[in-house]
Amino acid sequence: MAYVQRDQPAGVPPLELTGERTLPDVPAENYWYRRHLAVYEWIGARAAGLRMLDMACGEGYGSEVLSRSAASVLGVDANPEAHEHARLRYVRQNLRFERGLVETYGAAGEFDAVVFLQTIEHVHDPTAVLEHFGSLVGSDGVLYVTTPNLLTLAPPGASKSENPWHLKEYRADEFRSLCESVFGEVEMLGLFHARKLRVHAWALSAGWDRVHAALKLTKPFYDRFTPAIAASDFALRGGDADLDRALDFLAVCRRPR
Description:
Blueprint: E1 3-4, E2 16-17, H1 30-44, E3 51-55, H2 61-67, E4 72-77, H3 80-89, E5 95-99, E6 113-117, H4 126-137, E7 142-148, H5 150-153, H6 172-180, E8 183-193, H7 195-205, H8 208-214, H9 218-225, E9 234-237, E10 248-256
């Protein structure tokens, strides 16, 4: 049975959890929500005074995070239900939402920064989409793009995970090459587990799966553990980070070719 958001503010239509987009307010989805939120917060800390476009903004929570520091934020999504939900739920003077397609929305030089998180793996022509975003930010702007790491998302040796919404999943070198084909300056960072998620990963490597299953603790433990995950349980690292071990990649792109 599909899960639908509960306890929404009065007049805000709840969204159904389909797997296409991440939602807040869903305890079992909290890991993925916080994983995405960590990146929005990192970008938001660098957004002061900027005109920002949050493309494929989904439920709208990320656009709201960006609007806490940016001069203005426009959240754009093609889905009518997501657009209506975001428009009614997140109301700030410097934040608005519109419907539009990632391939065509916007005018040249209209934004200082474009944010495109966890969506490039969904598009049919990623190069054309990146070129379009490059035109929106121009020579002085910046594009932030994230995508999951094929090596940590899909089973070993598989060309793609079982996510039906994903058309193409990338290794670090593939994603870098894609971005560098459109932008003259690309900085690559990786998102990794931190704090209690790092401890949990160590416990799994030490056999925690066998222990909780044998003690019949699986459901009670994860019913408490998963909702307690915070954005601070993830960390972005660049420089010498081993990107092949990253959960997601973040490309910070400047100077479109």
